[in-house]
Specification:
With about 280 residues, the chain is of the alpha/beta class. It has a single domain (about 5-275), classed as Rossmann fold. Helices cover about 40% and strands about 20% of the residues. It contains eight helices and eleven strands. The chain has helices at about 10-20, 80-95, 125-135, 150-160, 175, 185-200, 205-230, 255-275, and strands spanning about 25, 40-45, 45-50, 55-60, 70-75, 100-105, 105-110, 120-125, 140, 165-170, 170. The strands form four sheets. The chain has a four-stranded mixed beta sheet, with helices on both faces. Strands 1-4-5 form a three-stranded antiparallel beta sheet, covered by helices on one side. A hairpin with an 8-residue loop joins strand 4 (about 55-60) and strand 5 (about 70-75). Helix 2 (about 80-95) packs across helix 4 (about 150-160). The longest helix is centred in the last third of the chain and has 25 residues, at about 205-230.
Length: about 280
């Protein structure tokens, strides 16, 4: 499961699995009760499109008779969050889901882009703690404050005897501060995906995502170095805003033209900060 987050890290994980496994779309939650402001398209004075909260369920059936997989990607509900959570968990119960995994990211200090991303985990059952730690996932040490959609799923899945694991790969804050597509950071998606594959023995290779992560890191490394040096001089930074909707396919490759444009835009962003 994933929702829009910084850099679309979680969405890239679920889209990669969806594409590699050849999943089939089988349903969605009707969005009318969970949307407030629709996304519209107007051309020459004529409204051509209106989109409410996007969400989709996909499934993959293991041909070898192992565990099957259901993938859910969604916009954040704008209202009636608990009803939304309940409906998704109804689907999980209907299909006998044993365990939920959720993927995401956040901006963090104390790490730089040359580091290998860490993965932190939050679980909803004590027996899961040793399991996630055995797969190189660090339990999130302590937090008290405002939760998010994943917090609700962790809590209410427990009431239904469904195990749940929330996986987070933090990215450097000087990258997270940028809006998409400049905060694109496939290294974090790769870190989560590698652990998820091992935990559930999912028959998927990571070569394509490794190539994308390496390509992005090589092409954007220099500008990230400049941003990091500039960020060290700052005392505060604006929080990156979440995108209003998920992309159709966050796992798609980044073209050379896209990379050049992203680097130019980041460079312009960086220069404006000095003025």
């Amino acid at each position: 499961m994933a929702w829009p987050d910084i850099g679309h890290v979680g969405l890239r994980v679920v889209d990669y699995l969806k594409n590699q496994l050849g999943t089939q779309r089988f349903g969605r939650i009707e969005p009318y009760e969970f949307s407030l402001v629709p996304w519209i398209s107007v051309k020459d004075g004529l409204i051509e499109k209106l989109e409410l909260m996007k969400n989709e369920f996909y499934y993959w059936k293991d041909p070898k008779g192992g565990s099957d997989l259901i993938i859910f990607k969604s916009d954040q509900p704008a209202t009636k969050t608990y009803d939304y959570v309940g409906l998704v968990l109804d689907v999980a119960n209907q299909f006998g889901v044993k365990r939920l995994y959720m993927a995401g990211s956040f901006g963090a200090t104390g790490i730089v882009h040359s580091d290998e991303p860490l993965v932190f985990g939050v679980v909803n059952h004590p027996d899961l703690k040793e399991f996630v730690e055995s797969h190189d996932i660090k339990l999130y040490p302590e937090y008290q404050g405002i939760g998010n959609i994943q917090s609700s799923f962790l809590w209410f899945a427990r009431d239904r005897n469904i195990e749940a694991v929330s996986l987070w790969a933090p990215m450097p804050y000087y990258i997270a501060r940028l809006p998409l597509p400049w905060s694109n950071y496939p290294k974090c998606s790769l870190a989560i995906l590698q652990r998820l594959i091992k935990m559930e023995n999912i028959p998927v290779g990571t070569r394509e995502l490794e190539t994308l992560a390496k390509q992005t890191e090589t092409e954007m490394g220099k500008i990230y170095d400049e941003l990091y040096e500039e960020a060290k001089k700052e005392f505060a930074y604006p929080t990156a805003e979440l995108p209003p909707a998920y992309t159709d396919d966050a796992a798609g490759p980044i073209s050379d033209d896209d990379l050049r444009r992203m680097i130019k835009d980041i460079d312009d962003f960086f220069k404006k900060g000095k003025q």
